[in-house]
Protein backbone atom coordinates (compact mmCIF):
# COMPACT_ATOMS: atom_id res chain seq x y z
CA UNK A 1 0.00 0.00 0.00
CA UNK A 2 1.36 3.40 -0.92
CA UNK A 3 2.31 5.73 1.90
CA UNK A 4 0.66 8.62 0.06
CA UNK A 5 -2.89 7.24 -0.24
CA UNK A 6 -5.73 8.86 1.75
CA UNK A 7 -5.84 6.09 4.37
CA UNK A 8 -2.13 6.41 5.02
CA UNK A 9 -2.34 10.21 5.26
CA UNK A 10 -5.34 9.95 7.61
CA UNK A 11 -3.41 7.49 9.75
CA UNK A 12 -0.48 9.93 9.97
CA UNK A 13 -2.85 12.77 10.94
CA UNK A 14 -4.48 10.62 13.65
CA UNK A 15 -1.07 9.53 14.90
CA UNK A 16 0.07 13.16 14.95
CA UNK A 17 -2.93 14.14 17.06
CA UNK A 18 -2.18 11.33 19.49
CA UNK A 19 1.51 12.18 19.76
CA UNK A 20 1.06 15.94 20.00
CA UNK A 21 -1.09 15.27 23.06
CA UNK A 22 2.23 14.57 24.79
CA UNK A 23 3.36 18.18 24.29
CA UNK A 24 1.63 19.43 27.50
CA UNK A 25 3.27 16.55 29.41
CA UNK A 26 6.64 17.50 27.96
CA UNK A 27 6.14 21.15 28.88
CA UNK A 28 5.21 20.13 32.43
CA UNK A 29 8.38 18.05 32.55
CA UNK A 30 10.38 21.13 31.52
CA UNK A 31 8.60 23.36 34.02
CA UNK A 32 9.13 20.92 36.90
CA UNK A 33 12.83 20.67 36.02
CA UNK A 34 13.69 24.37 35.56
CA UNK A 35 10.75 26.77 35.87
CA UNK A 36 12.88 29.94 36.28
CA UNK A 37 15.01 29.13 33.26
CA UNK A 38 11.86 28.41 31.22
CA UNK A 39 10.59 31.92 31.98
CA UNK A 40 13.89 33.55 30.99
CA UNK A 41 14.05 31.39 27.88
CA UNK A 42 10.50 32.38 26.88
CA UNK A 43 11.29 36.09 27.24
CA UNK A 44 14.41 35.76 25.09
CA UNK A 45 12.50 33.87 22.41
CA UNK A 46 9.85 36.57 22.21
CA UNK A 47 12.51 39.26 21.79
CA UNK A 48 14.41 37.20 19.23
CA UNK A 49 11.20 36.69 17.31
CA UNK A 50 10.53 40.45 17.01
CA UNK A 51 14.05 41.61 16.11
CA UNK A 52 14.29 40.10 12.57
CA UNK A 53 11.05 41.83 11.53
CA UNK A 54 12.36 45.12 12.87
CA UNK A 55 15.60 44.55 10.97
CA UNK A 56 13.74 43.91 7.71
CA UNK A 57 11.64 47.05 8.09
CA UNK A 58 14.72 49.15 8.95
CA UNK A 59 16.40 47.83 5.78
CA UNK A 60 13.71 49.54 3.67
CA UNK A 61 14.02 52.73 5.74
CA UNK A 62 17.82 52.83 5.34
CA UNK A 63 17.68 52.16 1.57
CA UNK A 64 14.96 54.76 0.96
CA UNK A 65 16.84 57.32 3.09
CA UNK A 66 20.07 56.59 1.23
CA UNK A 67 18.42 57.02 -2.17
CA UNK A 68 17.06 60.41 -1.07
CA UNK A 69 20.37 61.59 0.41
CA UNK A 70 22.56 60.60 -2.54
CA UNK A 71 23.96 63.75 -4.18
CA UNK A 72 22.36 66.10 -1.62
CA UNK A 73 25.57 67.04 0.22
CA UNK A 74 26.52 66.75 3.90
CA UNK A 75 23.92 69.05 5.37
CA UNK A 76 22.70 68.00 8.80
CA UNK A 77 19.26 67.22 7.47
CA UNK A 78 20.67 64.73 4.96
CA UNK A 79 22.94 63.13 7.55
CA UNK A 80 20.08 62.81 10.02
CA UNK A 81 17.98 61.20 7.30
CA UNK A 82 20.39 58.25 7.23
CA UNK A 83 21.73 58.40 10.81
CA UNK A 84 18.42 57.70 12.58
CA UNK A 85 17.48 54.46 10.75
CA UNK A 86 21.17 53.46 10.63
CA UNK A 87 21.50 53.90 14.40
CA UNK A 88 18.32 51.92 15.02
CA UNK A 89 19.59 49.19 12.69
CA UNK A 90 22.85 49.03 14.68
CA UNK A 91 20.87 48.77 17.93
CA UNK A 92 18.78 45.91 16.54
CA UNK A 93 21.91 44.06 15.36
CA UNK A 94 23.48 44.54 18.80
CA UNK A 95 20.38 43.18 20.52
CA UNK A 96 20.40 40.18 18.19
CA UNK A 97 23.99 39.39 19.16
CA UNK A 98 23.29 39.84 22.88
CA UNK A 99 20.14 37.68 22.86
CA UNK A 100 21.89 35.02 20.80
CA UNK A 101 24.76 34.83 23.31
CA UNK A 102 22.36 34.79 26.27
CA UNK A 103 20.24 32.13 24.59
CA UNK A 104 23.22 29.76 24.51
CA UNK A 105 23.79 30.25 28.23
CA UNK A 106 20.11 29.89 29.12
CA UNK A 107 19.66 26.79 26.94
CA UNK A 108 22.70 25.11 28.49
CA UNK A 109 21.45 25.76 32.03
CA UNK A 110 17.97 24.64 31.09
CA UNK A 111 19.15 21.50 29.29
CA UNK A 112 21.33 20.43 32.23
CA UNK A 113 18.39 20.75 34.63
CA UNK A 114 16.02 18.94 32.26
CA UNK A 115 18.45 16.09 31.58
CA UNK A 116 19.08 15.50 35.28
CA UNK A 117 15.36 15.70 36.06
CA UNK A 118 14.46 13.14 33.40
CA UNK A 119 17.23 10.77 34.48
CA UNK A 120 16.00 11.07 38.07
CA UNK A 121 12.48 10.18 36.94
CA UNK A 122 13.84 7.15 35.08
CA UNK A 123 15.99 6.09 38.05
CA UNK A 124 13.08 6.49 40.49
CA UNK A 125 10.79 4.48 38.24
CA UNK A 126 13.36 1.72 37.68
CA UNK A 127 13.84 1.51 41.44
CA UNK A 128 10.15 1.06 42.23
CA UNK A 129 9.46 -1.62 39.62
CA UNK A 130 9.52 -5.30 40.54
CA UNK A 131 12.14 -7.85 39.63
CA UNK A 132 9.48 -9.30 37.34
CA UNK A 133 10.07 -6.47 34.89
CA UNK A 134 13.72 -7.45 34.63
CA UNK A 135 12.69 -10.89 33.40
CA UNK A 136 11.22 -9.40 30.22
CA UNK A 137 13.09 -8.40 27.06
CA UNK A 138 10.23 -5.99 26.30
CA UNK A 139 11.06 -4.14 29.52
CA UNK A 140 14.69 -3.76 28.45
CA UNK A 141 13.59 -2.52 25.03
CA UNK A 142 11.29 0.09 26.59
CA UNK A 143 13.93 1.09 29.15
CA UNK A 144 16.54 1.44 26.41
CA UNK A 145 14.17 3.44 24.23
CA UNK A 146 13.29 5.70 27.15
CA UNK A 147 16.75 6.23 28.62
CA UNK A 148 18.79 6.43 25.41
CA UNK A 149 16.65 9.11 23.76
CA UNK A 150 14.59 10.70 26.53
CA UNK A 151 17.04 13.39 27.58
CA UNK A 152 18.25 14.33 24.11
CA UNK A 153 14.79 14.24 22.55
CA UNK A 154 13.27 16.24 25.41
CA UNK A 155 15.88 18.93 24.85
CA UNK A 156 15.23 18.83 21.12
CA UNK A 157 11.51 19.27 21.79
CA UNK A 158 12.39 22.22 23.99
CA UNK A 159 14.49 23.77 21.24
CA UNK A 160 11.85 23.03 18.61
CA UNK A 161 9.08 24.58 20.68
CA UNK A 162 11.35 27.58 21.17
CA UNK A 163 12.10 27.74 17.46
CA UNK A 164 8.40 27.35 16.73
CA UNK A 165 7.58 30.31 18.97
CA UNK A 166 10.45 32.47 17.76
CA UNK A 167 9.95 31.73 14.07
CA UNK A 168 6.19 32.10 14.41
CA UNK A 169 6.53 35.61 15.85
CA UNK A 170 9.02 36.59 13.16
CA UNK A 171 6.88 35.08 10.40
CA UNK A 172 3.81 37.02 11.50
CA UNK A 173 5.91 40.20 11.42
CA UNK A 174 7.28 39.39 7.95
CA UNK A 175 3.80 38.50 6.65
CA UNK A 176 2.47 41.85 7.91
CA UNK A 177 5.25 43.59 5.93
CA UNK A 178 4.50 41.59 2.73
CA UNK A 179 0.69 41.84 2.76
CA UNK A 180 0.65 45.43 1.37
CA UNK A 181 2.39 44.10 -1.76
CA UNK A 182 -0.30 41.48 -2.27
CA UNK A 183 -2.10 38.93 -0.09
CA UNK A 184 -1.05 36.20 -2.50
CA UNK A 185 2.66 36.66 -1.65
CA UNK A 186 2.47 35.27 1.94
CA UNK A 187 0.37 32.39 0.56
CA UNK A 188 3.07 31.55 -2.01
CA UNK A 189 5.60 31.77 0.81
CA UNK A 190 3.67 29.18 2.84
CA UNK A 191 2.95 26.74 0.01
CA UNK A 192 6.52 26.85 -1.32
CA UNK A 193 7.77 25.31 1.94
CA UNK A 194 5.17 22.53 2.30
CA UNK A 195 7.37 20.01 0.42
CA UNK A 196 10.02 20.50 3.10
CA UNK A 197 7.44 19.64 5.79
CA UNK A 198 6.45 16.51 3.88
CA UNK A 199 10.09 15.40 3.62
CA UNK A 200 10.73 15.93 7.34
CA UNK A 201 7.60 14.13 8.55
CA UNK A 202 7.87 11.22 6.13
CA UNK A 203 11.56 10.49 6.59
CA UNK A 204 11.71 11.16 10.33
CA UNK A 205 8.79 8.78 10.75
CA UNK A 206 10.69 6.19 8.72
CA UNK A 207 13.74 6.70 10.91
CA UNK A 208 11.72 6.30 14.11
CA UNK A 209 10.12 3.09 12.85
CA UNK A 210 13.56 1.78 11.93
CA UNK A 211 15.03 2.75 15.31
CA UNK A 212 12.14 1.13 17.17
CA UNK A 213 12.39 -2.03 15.06
CA UNK A 214 16.16 -2.30 15.60
CA UNK A 215 16.24 -1.57 19.36
CA UNK A 216 17.15 -5.14 20.24
CA UNK A 217 19.92 -5.19 17.62
CA UNK A 218 21.34 -1.96 19.05
CA UNK A 219 21.24 -3.47 22.54
CA UNK A 220 23.00 -6.54 21.18
CA UNK A 221 25.77 -4.36 19.72
CA UNK A 222 26.07 -2.61 23.09
CA UNK A 223 26.36 -5.99 24.80
CA UNK A 224 29.19 -7.08 22.48
CA UNK A 225 30.93 -3.76 23.16
CA UNK A 226 30.65 -4.29 26.93
CA UNK A 227 32.08 -7.80 26.61
CA UNK A 228 35.15 -6.30 24.97
CA UNK A 229 35.62 -3.25 27.18
CA UNK A 230 34.35 -4.03 30.71
CA UNK A 231 36.21 -5.86 33.46
CA UNK A 232 33.53 -8.44 34.28
CA UNK A 233 34.30 -10.38 31.09
CA UNK A 234 38.00 -9.60 30.73
CA UNK A 235 39.30 -12.89 32.17
CA UNK A 236 37.26 -15.27 30.04
CA UNK A 237 37.66 -13.15 26.92
CA UNK A 238 41.41 -13.63 27.22
CA UNK A 239 41.43 -17.16 28.60
CA UNK A 240 39.26 -18.49 25.77
CA UNK A 241 40.58 -16.12 23.09
CA UNK A 242 37.13 -14.62 22.49
CA UNK A 243 38.26 -11.09 21.61
CA UNK A 244 38.10 -11.56 17.84
CA UNK A 245 34.82 -13.47 18.15
CA UNK A 246 33.01 -10.64 19.95
CA UNK A 247 34.72 -7.94 17.87
CA UNK A 248 33.49 -9.64 14.70
CA UNK A 249 29.99 -10.07 16.15
CA UNK A 250 29.93 -6.36 17.04
CA UNK A 251 31.16 -5.37 13.56
CA UNK A 252 28.54 -7.55 11.85
CA UNK A 253 25.66 -5.98 13.78
CA UNK A 254 27.03 -2.46 13.34
CA UNK A 255 27.63 -3.00 9.61
CA UNK A 256 24.02 -4.02 9.17
CA UNK A 257 22.65 -1.13 11.25
CA UNK A 258 25.04 1.35 9.62
CA UNK A 259 24.02 0.32 6.11
CA UNK A 260 20.31 0.76 6.83
CA UNK A 261 20.87 4.12 8.53
CA UNK A 262 22.96 5.47 5.64
CA UNK A 263 20.31 4.36 3.14
CA UNK A 264 17.63 6.22 5.11
CA UNK A 265 19.74 9.40 5.17
CA UNK A 266 20.51 9.14 1.44
CA UNK A 267 16.81 9.00 0.57
CA UNK A 268 16.10 11.92 2.89
CA UNK A 269 18.87 14.02 1.29
CA UNK A 270 17.55 13.41 -2.23
CA UNK A 271 14.03 14.37 -1.17
CA UNK A 272 15.37 17.50 0.58
CA UNK A 273 17.09 18.62 -2.63
CA UNK A 274 13.79 18.30 -4.50
CA UNK A 275 11.95 20.32 -1.85
CA UNK A 276 14.66 23.00 -1.98
CA UNK A 277 14.37 23.35 -5.77
CA UNK A 278 10.61 23.83 -5.44
CA UNK A 279 11.12 26.64 -2.91
CA UNK A 280 13.78 28.26 -5.12
CA UNK A 281 11.47 28.21 -8.15
CA UNK A 282 8.71 29.88 -6.13
CA UNK A 283 11.07 32.61 -4.96
CA UNK A 284 12.30 33.23 -8.53
CA UNK A 285 8.74 33.59 -9.80
CA UNK A 286 7.76 36.09 -7.10
CA UNK A 287 10.95 38.11 -7.56
CA UNK A 288 10.21 38.26 -11.29
CA UNK A 289 6.84 39.83 -10.54
CA UNK A 290 8.43 42.42 -8.24
CA UNK A 291 11.12 43.25 -10.81
CA UNK A 292 8.38 43.84 -13.39
CA UNK A 293 6.67 46.23 -10.94
CA UNK A 294 9.92 48.11 -10.34
CA UNK A 295 10.44 48.56 -14.10
CA UNK A 296 6.99 50.11 -14.31
CA UNK A 297 7.85 52.50 -11.45
CA UNK A 298 5.47 50.86 -9.00
CA UNK A 299 8.21 50.01 -6.47
CA UNK A 300 11.25 51.82 -5.06
CA UNK A 301 14.76 50.45 -4.49
CA UNK A 302 13.86 50.20 -0.81
CA UNK A 303 10.76 48.18 -1.74
CA UNK A 304 12.88 45.76 -3.76
CA UNK A 305 15.42 45.39 -0.93
CA UNK A 306 12.67 44.96 1.65
CA UNK A 307 10.78 42.48 -0.50
CA UNK A 308 13.84 40.40 -1.39
CA UNK A 309 14.99 40.18 2.21
CA UNK A 310 11.46 39.65 3.56
CA UNK A 311 10.60 36.88 1.15
CA UNK A 312 13.96 35.17 1.53
CA UNK A 313 13.88 35.33 5.33
CA UNK A 314 10.20 34.45 5.37
CA UNK A 315 10.86 31.41 3.23
CA UNK A 316 13.65 30.32 5.57
CA UNK A 317 11.46 30.99 8.59
CA UNK A 318 8.55 29.08 7.12
CA UNK A 319 10.82 26.18 6.26
CA UNK A 320 12.23 26.17 9.79
CA UNK A 321 8.75 26.47 11.25
CA UNK A 322 7.43 23.49 9.33
CA UNK A 323 10.58 21.47 9.93
CA UNK A 324 10.25 22.18 13.65
CA UNK A 325 6.65 20.99 13.46
CA UNK A 326 7.76 17.81 11.70
CA UNK A 327 10.59 17.17 14.13
CA UNK A 328 8.27 17.92 17.03
CA UNK A 329 5.97 15.20 15.75
CA UNK A 330 8.90 12.81 15.34
CA UNK A 331 10.42 13.50 18.75
CA UNK A 332 7.03 13.06 20.35
CA UNK A 333 7.15 9.51 18.96
CA UNK A 334 10.45 8.95 20.76
CA UNK A 335 9.19 10.50 23.98
CA UNK A 336 6.13 8.27 23.89
CA UNK A 337 8.48 5.52 25.09
CA UNK A 338 9.52 7.65 28.07
CA UNK A 339 5.93 8.18 29.16
CA UNK A 340 5.16 4.50 28.50
CA UNK A 341 8.03 3.58 30.82
CA UNK A 342 6.96 6.07 33.49
CA UNK A 343 3.44 4.62 33.30
CA UNK A 344 4.55 1.11 34.31
CA UNK A 345 3.02 0.07 37.62
CA UNK A 346 4.73 -2.45 39.91
CA UNK A 347 2.84 -5.66 40.57
CA UNK A 348 4.11 -5.66 44.18
CA UNK A 349 1.70 -3.21 45.79
CA UNK A 350 1.38 -2.04 49.38
CA UNK A 351 -1.96 -2.70 51.10
CA UNK A 352 -4.40 0.19 51.44
CA UNK A 353 -4.39 -0.23 55.23
CA UNK A 354 -1.03 -1.74 56.19
CA UNK A 355 -0.34 -3.10 59.65
CA UNK A 356 1.45 -0.79 62.05
CA UNK A 357 3.65 -3.40 63.74
CA UNK A 358 6.91 -4.47 62.12
CA UNK A 359 6.92 -8.05 60.76
CA UNK A 360 9.50 -9.47 63.20
CA UNK A 361 9.02 -13.24 63.63
CA UNK A 362 8.43 -14.40 67.20
CA UNK A 363 7.21 -17.91 66.41
CA UNK A 364 7.30 -19.00 62.76
CA UNK A 365 7.77 -18.09 59.12
CA UNK A 366 5.41 -20.18 57.00
CA UNK A 367 5.08 -20.93 53.29
CA UNK A 368 1.48 -22.08 52.93
CA UNK A 369 0.41 -23.95 49.76
CA UNK A 370 2.63 -21.69 47.67
CA UNK A 371 2.69 -22.04 43.88
CA UNK A 372 5.06 -19.84 41.91
CA UNK A 373 6.50 -19.54 38.42
CA UNK A 374 8.77 -16.81 37.13
CA UNK A 375 7.40 -14.22 34.66
CA UNK A 376 7.17 -15.30 31.03
CA UNK A 377 7.63 -18.97 31.96
CA UNK A 378 5.05 -21.75 32.10
CA UNK A 379 6.80 -24.18 34.46
CA UNK A 380 6.16 -23.81 38.18
CA UNK A 381 9.25 -23.71 40.38
CA UNK A 382 7.10 -24.31 43.45
CA UNK A 383 3.68 -25.97 43.40
CA UNK A 384 1.47 -26.33 46.49
CA UNK A 385 4.62 -25.92 48.55
CA UNK A 386 4.38 -25.75 52.35
CA UNK A 387 7.15 -25.23 54.90
CA UNK A 388 7.43 -23.79 58.39
CA UNK A 389 10.64 -22.18 59.66
CA UNK A 390 11.01 -21.71 63.43
CA UNK A 391 11.80 -18.20 64.63
CA UNK A 392 15.16 -17.51 66.30
CA UNK A 393 16.65 -20.69 64.87
CA UNK A 394 19.00 -21.50 62.00
CA UNK A 395 17.28 -23.31 59.14
CA UNK A 396 19.28 -24.69 56.21
CA UNK A 397 17.86 -25.54 52.80
CA UNK A 398 19.94 -27.88 50.64
CA UNK A 399 19.18 -29.40 47.27
CA UNK A 400 19.97 -29.53 43.60
CA UNK A 401 20.27 -26.45 41.41
CA UNK A 402 16.82 -25.41 40.22
CA UNK A 403 15.06 -27.04 43.17
CA UNK A 404 13.58 -23.67 44.23
CA UNK A 405 15.79 -22.88 47.23
CA UNK A 406 16.65 -19.28 46.26
CA UNK A 407 13.05 -18.69 45.17
CA UNK A 408 11.96 -19.09 48.79
CA UNK A 409 14.15 -16.17 49.88
CA UNK A 410 12.79 -13.99 47.07
CA UNK A 411 9.21 -14.72 48.08
CA UNK A 412 9.93 -14.01 51.75
CA UNK A 413 11.31 -10.57 50.88
CA UNK A 414 8.46 -9.90 48.40
CA UNK A 415 10.81 -9.51 45.48
CA UNK A 416 8.06 -11.60 43.90
CA UNK A 417 4.57 -12.59 45.00
CA UNK A 418 3.35 -16.18 44.57
CA UNK A 419 0.61 -16.87 42.05
CA UNK A 420 -1.14 -18.95 44.71
CA UNK A 421 -0.76 -19.47 48.43
CA UNK A 422 0.66 -17.23 51.16
CA UNK A 423 3.89 -16.40 52.94
CA UNK A 424 3.19 -15.78 56.64
CA UNK A 425 5.14 -14.31 59.55
CA UNK A 426 3.53 -15.39 62.82
CA UNK A 427 0.37 -16.19 60.89
CA UNK A 428 0.14 -12.80 59.14
CA UNK A 429 0.41 -12.61 55.35
CA UNK A 430 3.49 -10.56 54.41
CA UNK A 431 1.28 -8.71 51.89
CA UNK A 432 -0.52 -7.06 54.82
CA UNK A 433 2.64 -5.09 55.65
CA UNK A 434 4.25 -2.24 53.76
CA UNK A 435 6.81 -3.77 51.43
CA UNK A 436 9.59 -1.54 52.76
CA UNK A 437 8.65 -2.31 56.38
CA UNK A 438 9.02 -6.01 55.54
CA UNK A 439 12.34 -5.60 53.75
CA UNK A 440 13.69 -3.48 56.60
CA UNK A 441 13.47 -6.59 58.80
CA UNK A 442 15.51 -8.73 56.40
CA UNK A 443 19.21 -8.80 55.63
CA UNK A 444 20.23 -10.83 52.60
CA UNK A 445 23.47 -12.15 51.20
CA UNK A 446 22.64 -12.91 47.59
CA UNK A 447 24.25 -15.73 45.66
CA UNK A 448 25.95 -13.22 43.35
CA UNK A 449 26.37 -10.13 45.54
CA UNK A 450 27.24 -6.71 44.18
CA UNK A 451 30.81 -5.49 44.03
CA UNK A 452 30.36 -1.75 44.49
CA UNK A 453 33.04 0.47 42.97
CA UNK A 454 33.41 2.37 46.24
CA UNK A 455 35.51 2.32 49.42
CA UNK A 456 35.48 -0.67 51.76
CA UNK A 457 33.48 1.33 54.31
CA UNK A 458 30.96 2.40 51.68
CA UNK A 459 30.61 -1.20 50.46
CA UNK A 460 29.67 -2.31 53.96
CA UNK A 461 27.45 0.69 54.73
CA UNK A 462 25.37 -0.15 51.64
CA UNK A 463 23.70 -2.67 53.95
CA UNK A 464 21.88 0.21 55.63
CA UNK A 465 22.48 3.66 54.17
CA UNK A 466 19.47 5.08 56.02
CA UNK A 467 20.91 4.61 59.50
CA UNK A 468 24.40 5.76 60.45
CA UNK A 469 25.74 3.34 63.07
CA UNK A 470 29.30 4.57 63.43
CA UNK A 471 32.72 3.07 62.82
CA UNK A 472 32.39 0.58 65.66
CA UNK A 473 29.36 -1.09 64.06
CA UNK A 474 31.18 -1.10 60.72
CA UNK A 475 34.20 -2.92 62.13
CA UNK A 476 32.02 -5.29 64.16
CA UNK A 477 30.24 -6.36 60.96
CA UNK A 478 33.59 -6.90 59.23
CA UNK A 479 34.86 -8.99 62.15
CA UNK A 480 31.78 -11.23 62.02
CA UNK A 481 32.45 -11.75 58.31
CA UNK A 482 36.14 -12.56 58.98
CA UNK A 483 37.34 -9.71 56.74
CA UNK A 484 38.46 -7.13 59.32
CA UNK A 485 42.12 -8.21 59.38
CA UNK A 486 42.28 -8.22 55.58
CA UNK A 487 40.82 -4.71 55.48
CA UNK A 488 43.40 -3.47 57.97
CA UNK A 489 46.16 -4.68 55.63
CA UNK A 490 44.77 -2.69 52.66
CA UNK A 491 46.58 0.57 51.68
CA UNK A 492 44.01 2.85 53.33
CA UNK A 493 42.15 0.36 55.48
CA UNK A 494 38.41 0.97 55.43
CA UNK A 495 38.94 4.00 53.17
CA UNK A 496 40.54 1.93 50.40
CA UNK A 497 38.81 2.28 47.03
CA UNK A 498 37.72 -1.13 45.72
CA UNK A 499 37.59 -2.03 42.05
CA UNK A 500 39.47 -0.44 39.17
CA UNK A 501 36.81 1.86 37.72
CA UNK A 502 38.14 4.84 39.66
CA UNK A 503 41.59 6.12 40.53
CA UNK A 504 43.58 4.32 43.21
CA UNK A 505 41.35 1.24 43.28
CA UNK A 506 42.34 -2.14 44.72
CA UNK A 507 40.70 -5.40 43.74
CA UNK A 508 39.94 -8.34 46.03
CA UNK A 509 39.73 -12.08 45.54
CA UNK A 510 36.33 -13.70 45.02
CA UNK A 511 36.27 -14.96 48.60
CA UNK A 512 37.22 -11.55 49.99
CA UNK A 513 34.48 -9.87 47.98
CA UNK A 514 32.00 -12.39 49.37
CA UNK A 515 33.10 -11.62 52.91
CA UNK A 516 32.63 -7.90 52.21
CA UNK A 517 29.07 -8.79 51.16
CA UNK A 518 28.67 -10.80 54.37
CA UNK A 519 29.82 -7.78 56.38
CA UNK A 520 27.24 -5.72 54.51
CA UNK A 521 24.54 -8.21 55.51
CA UNK A 522 25.66 -8.12 59.16
CA UNK A 523 25.78 -4.31 59.16
CA UNK A 524 22.10 -4.18 58.31
CA UNK A 525 21.44 -5.67 61.76
CA UNK A 526 18.01 -7.09 60.87
CA UNK A 527 16.04 -9.78 62.75
CA UNK A 528 15.74 -12.06 59.69
CA UNK A 529 18.99 -13.20 58.06
CA UNK A 530 18.95 -14.84 54.60
CA UNK A 531 22.28 -16.21 53.44
CA UNK A 532 22.40 -17.65 49.92
CA UNK A 533 25.61 -19.71 49.58
CA UNK A 534 27.42 -17.67 52.27
CA UNK A 535 30.63 -19.75 52.20
CA UNK A 536 30.79 -20.80 48.56
CA UNK A 537 33.87 -18.66 47.85
CA UNK A 538 35.59 -19.31 51.20
CA UNK A 539 38.36 -21.80 51.75
CA UNK A 540 37.65 -24.58 54.23
CA UNK A 541 39.63 -22.96 57.06
CA UNK A 542 37.81 -19.64 56.74
CA UNK A 543 34.49 -21.49 56.47
CA UNK A 544 35.06 -23.35 59.74
CA UNK A 545 36.08 -20.18 61.56
CA UNK A 546 33.07 -18.31 60.20
CA UNK A 547 30.69 -21.11 61.20
CA UNK A 548 31.99 -20.92 64.75
CA UNK A 549 31.07 -17.23 64.91
CA UNK A 550 27.80 -17.51 63.00
CA UNK A 551 25.94 -19.05 65.92
CA UNK A 552 26.17 -15.75 67.78
CA UNK A 553 23.64 -14.28 65.33
CA UNK A 554 20.93 -16.62 66.56
CA UNK A 555 21.98 -16.11 70.17
CA UNK A 556 21.11 -12.44 69.56
CA UNK A 557 17.51 -13.44 68.70
CA UNK A 558 17.68 -13.53 64.92
CA UNK A 559 15.99 -15.96 62.56
CA UNK A 560 18.50 -17.35 60.07
CA UNK A 561 17.71 -18.95 56.73
CA UNK A 562 20.71 -20.50 54.94
CA UNK A 563 20.64 -21.73 51.35
CA UNK A 564 23.69 -23.83 50.65
CA UNK A 565 25.27 -26.67 48.69
CA UNK A 566 27.85 -27.25 51.41
CA UNK A 567 26.96 -29.93 53.94
CA UNK A 568 29.73 -28.58 56.15
CA UNK A 569 27.68 -25.38 56.36
CA UNK A 570 24.24 -27.01 56.58
CA UNK A 571 25.23 -29.43 59.37
CA UNK A 572 25.47 -26.56 61.87
CA UNK A 573 21.82 -25.55 61.36
CA UNK A 574 19.14 -26.35 63.94
CA UNK A 575 17.09 -27.98 61.21
CA UNK A 576 17.91 -28.98 57.64
CA UNK A 577 15.38 -29.31 54.81
CA UNK A 578 16.34 -31.15 51.63
CA UNK A 579 14.55 -29.86 48.52
CA UNK A 580 13.98 -31.67 45.27
CA UNK A 581 11.68 -30.85 42.35
CA UNK A 582 10.13 -27.93 44.21
CA UNK A 583 9.21 -29.81 47.38
CA UNK A 584 10.68 -30.87 50.71
CA UNK A 585 11.79 -34.49 50.54
CA UNK A 586 13.61 -34.77 53.90
CA UNK A 587 13.85 -32.77 57.12
CA UNK A 588 15.74 -33.05 60.38
CA UNK A 589 19.01 -32.26 62.11
CA UNK A 590 22.26 -33.37 60.54
CA UNK A 591 22.45 -36.39 62.81
CA UNK A 592 18.81 -37.35 62.19
CA UNK A 593 19.18 -37.10 58.42
CA UNK A 594 22.34 -39.20 58.40
CA UNK A 595 20.56 -41.87 60.44
CA UNK A 596 17.57 -41.90 58.04
CA UNK A 597 19.88 -43.17 55.28
CA UNK A 598 17.96 -41.19 52.68
CA UNK A 599 18.99 -38.66 50.06
CA UNK A 600 20.94 -36.48 52.48
CA UNK A 601 22.71 -39.44 54.08
CA UNK A 602 23.86 -40.89 50.76
CA UNK A 603 25.30 -37.52 49.75
CA UNK A 604 27.04 -37.15 53.11
CA UNK A 605 28.49 -40.67 52.89
CA UNK A 606 29.78 -39.85 49.41
CA UNK A 607 31.70 -37.00 50.99
CA UNK A 608 33.18 -39.29 53.64
CA UNK A 609 34.28 -41.75 50.96
CA UNK A 610 36.16 -38.94 49.23
CA UNK A 611 38.08 -38.07 52.39
CA UNK A 612 35.76 -35.42 53.85
CA UNK A 613 35.79 -34.66 57.56
CA UNK A 614 33.51 -32.89 59.98
CA UNK A 615 35.18 -29.48 60.35
CA UNK A 616 34.15 -29.36 63.98
CA UNK A 617 36.56 -32.24 64.55
CA UNK A 618 39.46 -30.59 62.72
CA UNK A 619 42.35 -29.61 64.97
CA UNK A 620 42.20 -25.92 65.92
CA UNK A 621 45.71 -25.29 64.66
CA UNK A 622 44.84 -26.86 61.32
CA UNK A 623 41.92 -24.47 60.79
CA UNK A 624 44.08 -21.37 61.01
CA UNK A 625 45.88 -21.85 57.73
CA UNK A 626 46.43 -24.44 54.98
CA UNK A 627 49.08 -27.11 55.61
CA UNK A 628 52.54 -25.73 54.95
CA UNK A 629 54.54 -28.94 55.33
CA UNK A 630 53.74 -30.53 52.02
CA UNK A 631 51.37 -33.02 53.61
CA UNK A 632 49.10 -34.77 51.16
CA UNK A 633 46.33 -35.12 53.72
CA UNK A 634 43.35 -33.36 52.16
CA UNK A 635 41.78 -30.46 54.03
CA UNK A 636 38.05 -30.12 54.57
CA UNK A 637 36.56 -29.77 51.10
CA UNK A 638 33.42 -28.19 49.76
CA UNK A 639 30.60 -29.70 47.76
CA UNK A 640 31.60 -27.40 44.89
CA UNK A 641 35.02 -29.06 44.77
CA UNK A 642 33.33 -32.45 44.61
CA UNK A 643 31.10 -31.31 41.77
CA UNK A 644 34.12 -29.95 39.92
CA UNK A 645 35.66 -33.44 40.13
CA UNK A 646 32.56 -34.95 38.55
CA UNK A 647 30.70 -36.23 41.62
CA UNK A 648 27.24 -34.73 42.13
CA UNK A 649 26.55 -34.74 45.91
CA UNK A 650 22.87 -35.03 45.11
Automatic annotation (TrEMBL):
The keyword Nucleus does not apply. Residues 44-330 form the ABC transmembrane type-1 domain. Residues 365-606 form the ABC transporter domain. Keywords: ATP-binding, Cell membrane, Membrane, Nucleotide-binding, Transmembrane, Transmembrane helix, Transport. PROSITE patterns: ABC_TM1F, ABC_TRANSPORTER_1, ABC_TRANSPORTER_2. GO terms for molecular function: ABC-type transporter activity; ATP binding; ATP hydrolysis activity; ATPase-coupled lipid transmembrane transporter activity. Residues 634-650 have a biased composition (Basic and acidic residues). This is ATP-binding cassette subfamily B protein. It comes from Salinibacter ruber. The chain crosses the membrane at residues 37-58, 78-95, 157-177, 183-201, 270-292. One of its GO terms (cellular component) is plasma membrane. InterPro entries: AAA+_ATPase, ABC1_TM_dom, ABC1_TM_sf, ABC_transporter-like_ATP-bd, ABC_transporter-like_CS, P-loop_NTPase, Type_1_exporter.
